[in-house]
Amino acid sequence: MMRRTRATAATYAACALLLLGAAPAHAFRPSSPVVVPPDPYFPLSGNQGYDVRHYDLDLDFTPASHLLDARAAISAIADRPLHRFDLDYSGPAVQQVLVDGRPASYQRSGQKLTVVPARPIRAGSPFIVRVQYRGTPERISDPTLGDYGWINTPDGAVALNEPDGARTWYPLNDDLNDKATYTFRVTTPAGVTALANGEPDGDPQTRGGRTTATWQMRKPMAGYLSMVAVGDFTVTRTTDGGIPNITAYDPAGGETDAALHRTTAEALAWEKKRFGRYPFDSTGGIVDRIGVGYALETQSRPVYDGAPDELTVVHEIAHQWYGDSVTPTTWRDIWLNEGFATYTEWLWQEDHGGPTVQQTFDGLYATPAGDPFWNLRTADPGRDEIFNYDVVYLRGAMTLHVLRTTIGDRDFFALLREWADTHRYGNASTRDLQGLAEKISHRRLGPLFDAWLYTAAKPAPPS
Ligand SMILES: [Zn+2]
């Protein structure tokens, strides 16, 4: 994510937000029970007892009324006998819940939808939950995290879920560690455009004055990175370096997507050289008039609230490796997303006639010890501070720079690639990063990680 809260040359911030039929039974494999402790910052999100493999979201949306008529089919596998189970959901009124085709009883409480299947689900069994719901989804307005979730716009809607907003528009297991593939089938009045993560599955089909566009995200995705955008859009498609590049802009916004389209292709090519294989099957970006004040790294296709500058695009594309493909195990480690994406901006600037990375680091390190810049822990900033630009983004990037000057360029750039490669489509923690850096560099790095990530004070100058 990138939120524009600072305006000085060295410190721009952008935040981005990101956004799936039923898989055949033979695609499932049994797994042993996994107890994932609740997220320390969002303990109400995520559920026990099953592992989602695929979301099939059938969304019929009418911009004029903002009415959503939806069916979600969730393909999962039970990791224990399930007499009941929870989904994260705080969206419009539920009309029916089926488990494996049989009506199930259900109850809503807070942000949970509790489902009691007609017959208990056996451990190791695949099952499909179908939830039908209808109404106008509403955004979450959080006093510190801002506006997110389903955002209705004058000509449609955009879903920007980070951190826990997916529940505003579909039922899910909103656990960072339970990634799944997605199919989005979005039906709108003819003439309205619908985009989502991933790739279009054929051309949109129009019948009886309504058009259905189908998008597939074929790589595992965390719920916070799922996205749909509905409205008046002009779409540009090319293939750059073998990767389909699909961008779109709202023609009423006064800007086209020409710069975004070109910069997306350039950033992707430049980052592939440094980070290794691009993890997804397409790229792109969406510019809309949303009014949330940030951009979000929705998987494969970031969303921008108004036309972005070059560095914001570089930042959001970097997140495709760091955040989207390799996702933190808990929200405490969000610096693994934002520090890496911000450091990528510094590398890009240095390579494109801007300040060197060392100059950017030195300028920030000059911040006096008593400044609030230093008064939180980068790898545990607190729930309300996950988007703190100083603490998470800038000090996260500074940490990577100190790591680089400590282990040397060869090991550092090997680390960036191996981090993306080892944990591709998975989850990892700060301790995993430390372990990999120690393995590559044959150095003990505990003191560095503790001083730069786990201490709420200005670290001693890097030696
Ligand atoms: Zn970001």
Which structural traits does this protein have?
30% strand; alpha+beta; single chain; five-stranded antiparallel sheet; 2 domains; Immunoglobulin-like; 463 residues; binds zinc ion; nine-stranded mixed sheet; Neutral Protease, domain 2
Description:
About 6% of the residues have low confidence. The chain has 463 residues and is an alpha+beta fold. The chain is 24% helix and 30% strand. The strands form six sheets. Strands 2, 3, 5, 6, 9, 13, 15, 16 and 17 form a nine-stranded mixed sheet that branches. Zinc ion binds next to helix 2 and helix 3.
Fraction of helical residues: 10-25%
Based on the structure given, which CATH architecture of the largest domain is correct? Sandwich
CATH class of the largest domain: Mainly Beta
Shape: globular
Q: Report the CATH superfamily of the largest domain.
A: tricorn interacting facor f3 domain
The radius of gyration computed from the alpha-carbon positions, rounded to a whole number of angstroms, is 22 Å
Q: What ions, cofactors and ligands are bound?
A: zinc ion
Strand-residue proportion? 25-35%
How many domains would you count in the coordinates?
Answer: 2
> Strand tally, please?
25
What's the main sheet like?
A: 9 strands, mixed
The CATH topology label of the largest domain is Immunoglobulin-like
Taking pLDDT < 50 over at least 5 consecutive residues as the criterion, the unreliable ranges are 6-31
Mean pLDDT: 94
Structural class: alpha+beta
Secondary structure tally, helices: 8
Termini separation comes to 32 Å
